[in-house]
Amino acid sequence: MNYSDYEFLLFEHKPNGVLVITLNRPEVMNATNARMHWELTKIWDTVADDDETNVVVVTGAGKAFSAGGDLEWVGSVVGNPEGVQRIQKEAADIVYRMLDLQKPIISAINGVAVGAGLAVALMADISIMSETAKFTDGHVKIGVGAGDHAAIVWPLLCGMAKAKYYLMTAEFIDGKEADRVGLVSMSVPREEVLPKAMAVADQLAAGAQHAIRGTKTTLNGWIHQARPIFEDSLRMEMQCFLTPDAAEGIASVREKRPAKFPSAKGNS
Questions:
Q1: What is the per-residue DSSP string for 38-87?
Q2: Taken in order 183, 186, 188, 194, is the CA torsion positive or negative?
Q3: From CA 246, how far away is CA 248, in angstroms rounded?
């Protein structure tokens, strides 16, 4: 694919080899629909083939980074085996292609991040987050297990105790706390997020590219060791989409009410 083929990603090419990618559905807080989710699987190969780009900065248009999956799209997967298989492959592709891209990726987390958007934010090599922005993995709130990216990287970033707590409760984490526990590289005031990300990108773009890429690739070996765990988490997540809990979880979010999961005692 060429950059012009993308519908929901915007691109700004800097003369020093920095590429800024903006998730661009601001009217819905950059929520991922089917097309955007698919584009997030393809963009990393496009960047890999771009000899003019050495560093990527990814951010969100407007006030959000990405507010999770579009409810209509996510809801269409519930009880749909073919849809489940498609999303499982795409979720794996986002993670693996970001890991395989030798060029460094910096996420400028300017606002709320959930779902596939959060996967991109936290699978980036360097993550710079607004102190007041918040994110949550959120899967359990819609009745599915923590898949996408969480099992492969959260325990490495913040440790198993914190990972289990936040992934099983789906509590929101603000930038200061995410920084404190190690889920992001650093947190800064909101107005400084993109300038700081660009400053780091400029530093990397001026550096020794073979050394920087080799360092990224070597360190990613720690993450690759968790591939079997990640793939198991994807299967578990997708199996959950075939349960009544997922249907209730999506309905509760759509109707803005607490979920009454069939699997919880007292709700059946």
A1: HHHHHHHHHHHT-TT-SEEEEEESTT-SEE-B-HHHHHTTTT-HHHHHHH
A2: negative
A3: 5
Query: Crossing angle, helix 34-48 and helix 81-100, to 10 degrees?
Result: 30
Question: Which of these, 187, 76, 165, 72, lies nearest to 121 by C-alpha position?
Answer: 187
Instruction: Give CA torsion, residues 220, 222, 223, 224, to 10 deg.
Output: 90
What pLDDT, on the 0 to 100 scale, is given for residue 268?
A: 57
The CATH class that applies to domain 3-190+209-254 reads: alpha beta
The C-alpha torsion from 118 through 158 and 218 to 46, rounded to 10°, is 0
Q: How far apart are CA 241 and CA 31, in angstroms?
A: 19
CB atoms near residue 268 (< 10 Å): 9
Q: How far apart are CA 72 and CA 162, in angstroms?
A: 31
Sign of the CA dihedral running 223, 226, 228, 230? negative
Q: Which residues of the chain have a pLDDT value below 70?
A: 268
The answer to whether the predicted template modeling score (pTM) of the entire model surpasses 0.85 is yes
How far is residue 171 from each of residues 94, 165, 192, 235, 253, measured CA to CA in Å? 24, 8, 25, 23, 15
